[in-house]
Amino acid sequence: MSGKWNDDACHKNHSFVCYRKKCDGKCLPFWVPYGRYCYLVYNDKQGYSWPDARHVCQSVRTELVSIHSRAELEFIRNLNYTENHHIWIGLTRDQNFGWGWTDNTPLAFVNWASGEPNDAFHPGEAAEENCVEMYPDGRWNDNNCMLKKGFACRHRQCKHQYVCLQI
């Protein structure tokens, strides 16, 4: 290699080099910071199933939101500015038929609606209520994971940003 730059077809494989760029306290574009995390609430008219909502979050290297305090819950609740949908959160049944966050953080705070979780059976639906939605008032409900709803994602504010150059 001569160390000179050259434009080339994008589909060709090339080597690359990365370096860390410090970016303390940064969120992805359009995300809202709170504490050490950044949040995005999707609440447009088109809803997503819980698995599809999680996939959307993971596609930008984030996770469905886990909620660990009343203050955090109120912050997220205030980001849900529309009542088009209840929003999916990252709480789901774990392997022991209990509840766990998808980001594996401890489940130390809950805000179930009265009578929830109830694993209710809905006529015409074969699915169980294994996923959790948050109502506009902040209360939680277990529901069928395939129902279409809004969702909330969360990521830790970055400490370093990696910039990669193709060589």
From TrEMBL:
Residues 34-154 form the C-type lectin domain. Keywords: Disulfide bond. Pfam families: Lectin_C. InterPro entries: C-type_lectin-like, C-type_lectin-like/link_sf, C-type_lectin/snaclec_domain, C-type_lectin_CS, CTDL_fold. Gene3D superfamilies: Mannose-Binding Protein A, subunit A. The keyword S-adenosyl-L-methionine does not apply. PANTHER family: MANNOSE, PHOSPHOLIPASE, LECTIN RECEPTOR RELATED (PTHR22803). This is C-type lectin domain-containing protein. It comes from Oryzias sinensis (Chinese medaka).
